[in-house]
Design brief:
Elements (H helix, E strand, L loop, with lengths): L2 H13 L2 H8 L3 H15 L4 E4 L2 E4 L1 H24 L6 E7 L1 H6 L1 H11 L3 E7 L2 H9 L5 E5 L6 E8 L2 E5 L13 H4 L3 E5 L4 H12 L5 E6 L2 H9 L5 E4 H10 L3 E3 L10 E7 L6 H14 L11
Parallel strand pairs: 3-4, 3-5, 8-9
Antiparallel strand pairs: 1-2, 5-12, 6-12, 7-10, 7-11
Length: 302
């Protein structure tokens, strides 16, 4: 029984698609299909059935999952053992782009300082890419946007709610209960990331049937911040990217909670069946509290 065939099987199980499994494994779809067929011949049973464009596990396929997982895990442990007993334990951390840029540089040195015997490997990527890597055990711990998945355990880690950001001394800082008719007169820099939450900012103006004065449309947060600092515009930005500037007074937040509230969190995620390494989890919790104290954060549910 080939370990590659078992790995292909588990990728298809987790991703529920031969196409996605092939992409994650950097293989062609026919190669993944061939590996599944070979495994089925060796086991003398069907592991999947097709339903429309999707795949469904057969009862035999469901029953085989724990055995495949155990074989793959045993293989990985044996491979690690062959590399030498003194090899450092490796933990792979993944994060979406915003978390990677604004939180990881703060936290990673702290984790290493408290765990000198652990080798930390870090990767960044899109939410979808990180999800695939966590499900396929290519990433141990991930910082990702809101989602739900049966195979993942998650908890809120960082508040990244969207704020209306202005430069110090802006007239809006003196106003209360700001209306859309006031906002529509302000030049805006719009950070476009394609997420639904950003569409809500557009809706704020659409509902009032007015056009916002979007003077700048950018796809990079640092560019958006620079434009606001230069007093050319104001803008709605996620909290993590402006946390430092808000703390040192370079930028200011205007309360528009009467108009719109865009709550969004970065989640900490790992596989449901992973054994939590208590030391690193405690250190992650400590770094989160040091970076952004939030009373409701608790990793004990993981």
């Amino acid at each position: 029984m080939n370990i590659d065939h078992l790995e292909a099987f588990m990728y298809v199980v987790h991703l529920k698609s031969i196409h996605k499994a092939a992409n994650a494994l950097f293989l062609s779809q026919p190669t993944v299909t061939a590996r599944i067929k070979t495994l089925e011949r060796e086991l003398s049973t069907e592991l999947f059935t097709r339903e429309g464009r999707g795949l469904l596990l057969t009862e035999q396929g469901k029953a085989f999952i724990p055995y495949a997982e155990k074989i793959i895990q045993t293989y990985k442990e044996g491979k690690k053992q062959m590399k030498g007993r003194n090899e450092q334990e490796e933990i792979i951390i993944g994060a979406n782009v915003i978390t990677a840029q604004y939180f990881i540089p703060f936290a990673l040195p702290l984790w290493k300082k408290r765990n000198p015997d652990i080798h930390f490997k870090f990767v960044s990527g899109t939410n979808d890419m990180l999800l695939e890597k966590i499900l396929n055990r290519k990433v141990d711990i991930g910082f990702i946007r809101n989602l739900s998945h049966d195979d993942l355990q998650t908890c809120e880690a960082l508040d990244n709610s969207v704020k209306l950001i202005v430069y110090p001394g802006h007239p809006l800082l003196l106003k209360q209960n700001i209306t859309v008719s006031v906002l529509v007169e302000e030049p805006l820099v719009f950070f476009e990331c394609g997420a639904f939450d950003w569409n809500r900012v557009h809706k704020l103006f659409e509902v009032e049937k007015v056009e916002p004065k979007i003077e700048f449309q950018v796809d990079h947060l640092e560019v958006a911040k620079s434009i606001i600092k230069s007093k050319y515009a104001i803008g709605f930005l996620p909290y993590l990217c402006v946390k430092k500037e808000l703390e040192n007074g370079e930028l200011m937040e205007v309360d528009v909670s009467n108009l719109i509230q865009i709550k969004q969190h970065v989640l900490l995620a790992c596989m449901q069946d992973d054994i939590v390494r208590s030391s690193i989890w405690l250190d992650i919790e400590a770094s989160l509290k040091a970076f952004q104290p939030i009373d409701r954060i608790s990793l004990s549910k993981l």
